[in-house]
Amino acid sequence: MGKQMTEMLKGTLEGIVLAILSMRPAYGYEITAWLREQGFSDIAEGTIYALLVRVEQKRLVDVRKVPSEKGPPRKVYSLNKQGQEYLEEFWRTWSFLTERLEQLHEGGK
Amino acid sequence: MGKQMTEMLKGTLEGIVLAILSMRPAYGYEITAWLREQGFSDIAEGTIYALLVRVEQKRLVDVRKVPSEKGPPRKVYSLNKQGQEYLEEFWRTWSFLTERLEQLHEGGK
DNA sequence: CTCAGGTATTCGGTGTTGCTAGGTACCAGT
DNA sequence: ACTGGTACCTAGCAACACCGAATACCTGAG
């Protein structure tokens, strides 16, 4: 999708994944597939797994192993209390950014 | 403002600066000051200068030295044709992201 | 039975980016 | 002479997304 997207995803991808997990528990492969459907066509598989490891280490999610019928066991992640707070903080930061950018976008016409 | 902002600025800060330059030519010190006024309280000075060097090397801006009454000469940057196209591409990428995130934000309530 | 192919996770190395923490230089007022 | 505001630059660091490859499990085609 272009280099701009790659850089823009830094910081927001984490929020996106946490937002997904806030709706329902999910595992890496599933999240990757969903993101691709949503148009994030070039999100690398490895990226999501690495991100999930990070949020786990930050204690923002709980994990449980669930056997799969079609492959190795899934690692199903769910957002915990701390993760919810972190996600709310993410939305605040995001809102701040969008407000400034919207102003700039309007002003630039 | 927090670590989330730092990561989120990666990729967007460049667009922000280019958007500013699309309205009027400006120099580094001025841009830094303006950003701080807008609430980007902890944007480091060095960050902006490094960013300006990068966009100059990418040929997105034109530069001219202008003597200052109060210090060393200013390097005034202005967006050129290529920079405008790049900025439009930035807005397209940004719009894509905001749409997805807005959906997620709504869905998460 | 073997082998391709979908499912599912992991890992090492790379490039880009913003931050830290300085430094240089010019000038005005005390 | 010295402080402080203006204005720019740099080297080293940490975080993050990407790339490419490897591993592991299972099913169905040949």
TrEMBL record, chains A, B:
Pfam families (UniProt xref): PadR
Sequence ranges assigned to domain Transcription regulator PadR N-terminal in this UniProt record: 17-89
Stored InterPro entries: Metal_resp_DNA-bind_regulator, Tscrpt_reg_PadR_N, WH-like_DNA-bd_sf, WH_DNA-bd_sf
PANTHER family in the cross-refs: PADR-FAMILY TRANSCRIPTIONAL REGULATOR, TRANSCRIPTIONAL REGULATOR RV3488
Name of the protein in question: PadR family transcriptional regulator
